[in-house]
Amino acid sequence: MLIKQNIERIIQTYGRNRTYVLFGKDKEMKEIIEGILKELRVKYITENDHEKIESTDVVLYWNIEDKEKLEGLKREFLMGGIL
User: Fold this and answer.
1) Any residues with CB less than 8 A from the CB of 60 and at least 6 apart, and which?
2) What's residue 1's pLDDT?
3) How many whole angstroms separate alpha carbon 1 and alpha carbon 63?
4) Over 80: is that where the pLDDT of 80 sits?
5) How far apart are CA 10 and CA 58, in angstroms?
6) What are the backbone dihedrals phi and psi of residue 58, each rounded to the nearest 5 degrees, phi first?
7) What whole-number distance in Å separates Cα of residue 53 and Cα of residue 55?
8) Cα dist. 72→30, 40, 56, 59 in Å?
């Protein structure tokens, strides 16, 4: 699954010992991503207010429309390769 490969790449880049932030409104997609993160034993939180996200956080998002909202943050688009 492409999303799982992207998550594994992101974890290799930023490390396992941090909490990732899930950002996005699609509940079904969020549940899929949560399942992968649980399987990989990676901590995460969900935040739908981009102003509450710290600049040190790594944000995982799956709606391309959210890219501009997350400008200036460390962000990783999980659907890369599908576009």
Assistant:
1) 7, 10, 20, 21, 22, 23, 33, 44, 75, 76, 78
2) 75
3) 17
4) no
5) 9
6) -105, 120
7) 7
8) 22, 27, 10, 11
Residue 17 token pair: 């010992």
Task: Tell me the two tokens of residue 79.
Answer: 């659907």
The angle subtended at Cα 29 by Cα 24 and Cα 34, nearest 5°, is: 90
The whole-number pLDDT of residue 55 equals 93
Across 18-46, average pLDDT: 96
List, for residues 37-73, the tens digit of each pLDDT value: 999 999 999 999 999 999 999 999 999 999 999 999 9
